[in-house]
Write a structure and sequence with these properties.
seven-stranded mixed β-sheet; 7 strands; single chain; about 180 residues; Aminopeptidase; 5 helices; alpha+beta; binds coenzyme A; disordered N terminus
Length: about 180
């Protein structure tokens, strides 16, 4: 498994780029998660959450017929992923994470936008999720695409008893 600490290190390409120049990635792709991706995904998962999903839990999620997944791959490296469930007209986001050294570059918003598009194509009318009350980056991301806080689940997180904010977005313009 990759050591999450390695994420802070610069690649050779970055080191070769003169200051002031932006080295654009050669290839960006969004695609469903495959079991073979779990090695890389688990490194992001454990670096991102205090109570990460296990590999086994991921596999069960991916096998569930209600589950959909997308990952973002840049130059062949996984930089983030989103897992969401389609439940009739409601799509529920179960997991979203971006590799620590790739954050604040629009990847989280890109993954969310791709999931919203899939939900609209599937004629869903609403998207929902739970987020820790203290998770400001995630709350801001969700608000920036149109989610609003609609309630609280008291003591939802088992590790520290933190409350979850329930956030909802109405999908008013399903894709025809
Ligand atoms: C939350 C997370 C997915 C955001 O991914 P990201 O790729 O860094 O987000 P983006 O670059 O697309 O940012 C989109 C918006 O989110 C908000 N945002 C993201 N990171 C932020 C930060 N550190 N502080 C404040 N706002 C932040 C901003 O509004 C930003 O818009 P802007 O760039 O126009 O200001 C990422 O921080 C992460 O993986 N966190 C750990 C796992 C997690 O908490 N997942 C959510 C579980 S509910």
């Amino acid at each position: 498994m990759n050591d999450p600490k390695e994420y802070g290190e610069k690649s050779r390409d970055e080191e070769a780029t003169p200051p002031g120049f932006y080295s654009a990635p050669k290839r960006v792709a969004f695609r469903p998660v495959r079991p073979a991706d779990l090695h890389e995904i688990m490194a992001i998962e454990t670096a991102s959450f205090s109570s990460p999903w296990s590999t086994r839990f991921f596999l069960e999620e991916l096998r569930d017929p209600r589950s959909h997944s997308l990952l973002c791959e840049m130059d062949g490296q996984i930089t983030g992923y989103i897992i969401f469930w389609s439940l009739a007209e409601v799509v529920d986001i179960h997991n979203l994470a971006v590799r620590p050294d790739c954050r604040q570059k629009g990847i989280g918003r890109g993954l969310l936008a791709a999931a919203i598009h899939e939900a609209q194509c599937a004629k869903a009318t609403r998207m929902t999720l739970e987020v820790r009350k203290s998770n400001e980056p995630a709350k801001r991301l969700y608000q920036s695409v149109g989610f609003t806080a609609q309630g609280v689940r008291k003591g939802y997180y088992a590790d520290n008893g933190e409350d979850a904010l329930i956030m909802v977005m109405n999908l008013e313009c399903p894709v025809s």
